[in-house]
Design a protein that fits this description.
With 236 residues, the protein is of the alpha/beta class. The chain has one domain: 3-Layer(aba) Sandwich (Rossmann fold), CATH 3.40.50. An 8-stranded mixed sheet has the order 1-2-4-3-5-6-7-8, sandwiched between helices.
Length: 236
């Protein structure tokens, strides 16, 4: 596998760095957007991109804070800084970023343009849901996507591919009523989806450097995510 930084052009005239991990092997591959949490495209997100590349995907992780903090790689004690950058984001701006990233990914000669997906964590989980609505994805996965219930339910009818949602039962931010609202919207829109709650896990359970890491939930969700992608992306 080989990883490198590239620069993408966004339709609003801005530039956005992105980390790309190339899989080993010739021929065409599926592609996946790996969408950051509040701490940027740091070591954790680059590691996740590498894990997907090891599974045969071309993985692209765009810097969604590029307008306010290009190159930001935060730590847990910088949560307030991260929240400031999140609050500065707009749905239109993020949609433009996701469209630029998916267009680049699908346009690579080594990527099958009909087999692209997204996965995201926390704010990236929300972004993965949005990406499924604004780009032609084959599938999308949201890990504890905060803000979907509050701001994106009207996008449910626009989802292009099946949506997998992972939630933490002990999440202090995303409450059971938020989970139900997302599920209700997807059901009403007659979209194919799966929603999985890990009852004893906390928010950020997949992020090993964080104190709330849950190895069982992380391992089980990873296996489910790979099978979901195998069904709706690799075998498409």
């Amino acid at each position: 596998m080989r990883g490198e930084w590239i620069t993408l052009q966004v339709d609003d005239g801005t530039e956005m760095r992105a980390w790309v991990e190339w899989p080993v092997g010739e021929g065409t591959h599926a592609g996946i957007l790996v969408l950051q949490d509040a701490y940027g495209v740091g070591e954790h997100i680059r590691d996740v991109a590498g894990r997907f590349a090891a599974e045969g995907y071309t993985a692209l992780a765009p810097e969604l804070f590029h307008r306010t903090a290009p190159g930001f790689e935060g730590t847990p004690d910088q949560l307030q800084d991260a929240m400031d950058h999140i609050r500065a984001m707009t749905v239109d701006g993020q949609a433009a970023d996701l469209e630029a990233a998916q267009t680049w990914l699908a346009g690579q000669p080594s990527v099958d343009e009909g087999r692209t997906a997204a996965v995201g964590f926390c704010m990236g989980g929300r972004a993965a849901f949005l990406a499924n609505a604004v780009t032609p994805l084959a599938a999308s996965i949201s890990y504890y996507g905060g803000g979907i219930a509050e701001g994106l339910l009207d996008r449910a009818p626009q989802l292009s591919g099946p949506q997998l949602l992972f939630w933490a039962g002990q999440d202090a931010r995303i409450l059971p009523e938020h989970v139900r609202a997302v599920e209700d919207a997807l059901r009403a829109a007659e979209k194919r989806y799966a929603s999985v709650v890990f009852s004893q896990a906390q928010h950020s359970f997949f992020n090993e450097p964080m104190g709330r890491y849950d190895p069982d939930a992380a391992r089980q969700s990873w296996a489910l995510a790979l099978q979901f992608l195998r069904s709706y992306v690799l075998e498409r």
